[in-house]
Amino acid sequence: MKSIDSALLTDLYQLTMLQGYYEQGMDETAVFEFFVRDLPPERGFLLAAGLEQVLQYLEGLCFTREELDYLKETGRFSDAFLDSLAALRFTGDVHAMPEGTPFFANEPILRVVAPMPQAQLMESRVINLLHYQTLVASKAARCVLAAPGKLLVDFGMRRAHAGEAGLLAARASYLAGFDGSSTVLAAPAFGVPIYGTMAHSFVQAHDLEAAAFEHFAHAQPDNVVLLIDTYDTEAAAQKVVELAARLQGINIKAVRLDSGDLFDHARQVRAILDAGGLRQTRLFCSGNLDEYQLQAFIKNDVPMDGFGVGTLMDTSADVPYLDCAYKLQEYAGIARRKHSEGKETWPGRKQVYRRYAEDGVMSADIVTLEDDVQEGRPLIRPVMRDGRRVQPPPALSESRDYAQREFESLPGELKRLEEHRYRVEIATVLKQLAHDVDLQQH
Q1: Which helix (DSSP H) or strand (DSSP E) does residue 31 occupy?
Q2: Which of 42, 165, 183, 308 lies in disulfide reach of 157, CB 3.0 to 4.6 Å?
Q3: Does position 3 have pLDDT exceeding 70, yes or no?
Q4: Phi, psi at residue 343, to the nearest 5°?
Q5: Whether the Cβ atoms of residue 25 and residue 80 lie closer than 8 Å to each other
Q6: How many CB atoms lie within 10 A of CB 29?
Q7: Are strands 362-369 and 180-181 parallel, antiparallel or unpaired?
Q8: How high is the pLDDT of residue 205?
Q9: How far is residue 117's CA from residue 27's CA, in Å, rounded to a whole number?
Q10: C-alpha distances out from residue 202 to 135, 228, 241, 262, 286, Å
Q11: Is the pLDDT reported for residue 179 higher than 50?
Q12: Rounded (10°) angle between helices 123-146 and 291-299
């Protein structure tokens, strides 16, 4: 019952609403869509991520006997309703944008069509899964675009908001184009390549810094990456040169910098290593980095080969949340629309078409109704029908390759870190439906 996969990992109001639906026999087909209302000014686009975890959740969605016993003990729910929960499984349809698709405000990236109790119950966990991975993937994508060709490694698990977040951040950043993660479980769980170096404690535990370097080199002969800023960075770089002359058949793969004036240290260390014959030894740095720091490294031509990006990405520090929602768009065959001030929704089952210029660069999107065929590429595809996947899930590496192809079609303005707004149109038929629904609901 305490598992992260528990059906009880939801908001209480999902269950209280379900009892209300049960008592009124409201189990007709509902349509919900997940979307982001507005993009924050720090994001020119978002990158869809988390769909695979949503589908896994739906495949296993059920209430155990222990969970039902707990709900009975609360005294909030009728026995008949709890009996109905015992048989609940997801039997609906899901349409979604593939993971790795850039998207924008008011564009649904997931649509659920299912009996109302099923579609309602999943709301909290679906938002939880899509929101977090989309946050991290979107920031990771900016890092990839800011530092093309550089080795990028997720270093953020230790400061992520709990273990699941750290693990999913490794997945989301790899999807967005990172080369790997320091989180070991990401390898068996998702096939994410793992990278590791050493900590300051390893150096401090030795009486001599040079001895620490030599011991680590013999302990990890195929992955000698030495942290050289525990004491004096430039002096440590010279010790690395001296160690390289003593090692037999062991190459020093890289040195890592983690503090101080990284621009200055990088230039000085590069000069020391080159003068000592270690031109193939790469420079790797970490320490509160994100896309803005990476952009500065590139702009100032700092001789850095790779970066460990951690806390600021795994917590999406500059944009810690998105104004996202999972809202009812249709029930019992009738379009529905929320009309709360500042939180209006577009009703009905929707599709997003993406248009391209002659050079293959994205030019505009149009959001319309599912059956209103428009010019361009439809982005929302069927992924689950009658509770079963339409096809086997793609490997994460395939989704990563897809994301990289999508980046190639981004307008140049969206590849930069400055604020830019991409054109998203609302189709006339969708505006008309919204007008009609407003008249009916009032």
Answers
A1: strand 29-36
A2: 183
A3: no
A4: -135, 35
A5: no
A6: 16
A7: unpaired
A8: 98
A9: 6
A10: 34, 11, 19, 21, 17
A11: yes
A12: 10
Residue type, 29: T
Structure tokens at 161: 């908001």
Which has the closest alpha carbon to 57: 405, 324, 387? 387
Phi, psi angle pair for 146, to nearest 5° = -80, -25
Q: Which domains does the chain have, with CATH numbers?
A: 12-136+319-441 (3.20.140.10), 148-314 (3.20.20.70)
Round to the nearest angstrom and report the end-to-end CA distance of the chain.
44
**CB-count exposure of residue 435 (10 Å: 0-12, 13-18, 19+):** exposed
Rounded to whole angstroms, the Cα distance separating 418 from 13 reads 40
Say if CB 217 and CB 423 are below 8 A apart: no
Tally of CA atoms within 13 A in the half-sphere of 210 that contains its CB: 11
Asked whether the beta carbons of 364 and 352 are under 8 A apart, the reply is no
Average pLDDT, the chain: 96
Q: CA-to-CA distance for 361 and 321, rounded, in angstroms?
A: 29
251 three-state secondary structure: coil
Nearest to residue 129, comparing CAs of 87, 82, 171, 68?
171
Q: What's the pLDDT tens digit per position in 196-216?
A: 999 999 999 999 999 999 999
The dihedrals phi and psi of 149, each to the nearest 5 degrees, come to 80, -5
At 1 the pLDDT is 39
Residue written as token pair 């679906």: 126
Helical pair 233-246 and 262-275, crossing angle rounded to 10 deg: 30
Residues 6+ apart with CB under 8 A from 285: 256, 257, 258, 262, 266, 304, 306, 307, 308
CB atoms within 10 A of CB 182: 20
Identify which has the larger pLDDT, 343 or 109. 109
Which helix (H) or strand (E) is 367 found in, with range?
strand 362-369
pLDDT tens digit sequence for 30-66: 999 999 999 999 999 999 999 999 999 999 999 999 9
Nearest-Å Rg of the Cα atoms of the chain is 26
The one-letter amino acid at 133:
Q
According to DSSP, the residues that pair with 254 across neighbouring strands are: 225, 282
The string of pLDDT tens digits covering residues 63-95 is 999 999 999 999 999 999 999 999 999 999 999
Rounded to an integer, the average pLDDT of 318-341 is 94
Asked whether the beta carbons of 204 and 214 are under 8 A apart, the reply is no
SS3 117: helix
DSSP 92: -
Q: Which residues lie closer than 8 Å to 433 by C-beta, 6 or more apart?
A: 335, 346, 347, 348, 369
Give the position of tokens 């550089």.
150
